[in-house]
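Check these lines:
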Amino acid sequence: MLHIDMDYFFAQIEEIRNPEYKNKIIAVCIFSGRTEDSGVISTVNYEGRNVGIKSGMPIVNAKKLAKSGIFLPADHKYYESISQTIDGLIRSNCTKVEKSSIDEWYALAEDEVETGKRIKLEILNSTNLTCTVGVAHSRLGAKMASDKAKPNGFLILGKEKERNLIDNSPVEKIIGIGPKTKDELNELGVKTVSDLRGLNQFILIEKFGKKTGAWLYNLGIGIYDSEIEERIEKGEFSRIGSLKENTREKGKILEKIVELEREAKEELKYSKKFYKTLTLIFITEDIKMHTKSRSFSKPRGEKETNLDEIKKLMSEFLDNERKEVRRVGVKFSGLVEMDGQTTLF
């Protein structure tokens, strides 16, 4: 399996389209508008990282570390256009592709090593951007390989090296293990993935639930998820907005989500469509996006309430995330046409 990860994507794009910034510190920022320097760093190049600037840092603190740095507002529309170009290149070389974020892909190919090399070269030739590629037998191994090889690297992990890398990793480095789960595992004496092998499967299931407990047990014995999810956009209605201030207070977050849901339902109403999946979007203070979803066995319309589901999904997220929430959103997807059948439905 391949994992393709663009290097400091937003900041690197700004380096390319602004040659005069070469060798300077470049930080792409999310400005809140509260004051001239309020907001946080989204992405920073390696010159900036070398002086201590990192994603999620308040802009005002970053400017103290780099008085002559270049601090730019994020141009998401332009970044997305570059991402679409890269997505096309990857899909033309691979048999199966999952785009997991604007700058990150998992893929399968007949010859992952040669394909990975070719993709790196084609991305460079087409966009002048570098990326890092990890190759391993599982998606977890491929992801960890690319993380280890950054920037502009290429790392191949055989089964033994993949197992050793994962086994020796602290549990909090594994995607899917949040702060709460990490603390609970630490209480059980689990610091690294290899420590999971000392726990009985039933103990894990009892403490973490059937799904998570079984996944943790498999992780410990070296069975890693290797499925690729091909995502095809089927249409959606969504709304996203900023909170008045960064917070973890449920009341304030819920109030904003309900407001956004109401706005999204207005569009849903006029489209004469129903939805099968409700997704809550949380953007934390470090500008990372998180989602929580609930799918329904029967399509729902704009008149049906989702308050109970929203409260549950919000609580599940906050229980596993300690950072404050900056923005929230609501998305309706899995749309079905119900025009002419609404009364019968």
Summary: The first strand starts at residue 2 and ends at 6.
